[in-house]
Design brief:
single chain, 152 residues, globular
Length: 152
């Protein structure tokens, strides 16, 4: 849904991190209070706590897939396997579209260093390129979810 994508981008531009913006727009569908998802996604922004790891838009989407289809432990192998398959599909589609899932690769600088963080801020990279990653993550996630039924 284009509306959900635009809401996620709007939240990102308003100051939510990429993981929060991506995941929070699915809170109502999941029946989970938005503040719970916002708190859970806090540490994933900036490539997982500004370490330059996996893009927060990607990890926010993975959080939603887990909440939508994941199991609650080792006895729920079918749900866990389904979730892993959907995560792999999401990552493949995001990578096909954007070339990587690493925040460092996507931004072209390493947020875990002072130099990289400074470069990202001076170039306003998170304001220029990250909204597209948030939009793509929500679009791909919507597409995947709409083709599935919950595994629980």
């Amino acid at each position: 849904m284009a509306k959900r994508q635009e809401e996620a981008v709007s939240r990102f531009m308003a100051g939510y991190n990429c993981a929060q913006a991506t995941s929070s727009v699915f809170a109502a569908d999941l029946g989970i209070p938005e503040e719970v998802i916002l708190r859970a996604a806090t540490g994933f922004g900036g490539g997982m706590g500004r370490t330059g790891g996996a893009c927060g838009a990607v990890t926010g989407a993975i959080l939603v897939l887990g909440l939508s289809f994941g199991g609650t432990g080792p006895t729920e192998k079918k749900a866990n396997d389904k979730t892993h398959a959907l995560v792999q599909e999401f990552i493949a589609r995001f990578t096909d579209r954007n070339g990587a899932i690493s925040c460092t690769e996507l931004l072209g600088c390493d947020l875990s260093t002072e130099e990289g963080l400074s470069r990202a801020r001076e170039g306003k990279l998170t304001r220029i390129v990250c909204p597209g990653y948030v939009r793509d993550a929500v679009e791909i996630l919507d597409s995947i979810i709409s083709g599935q039924s919950p595994g629980r």
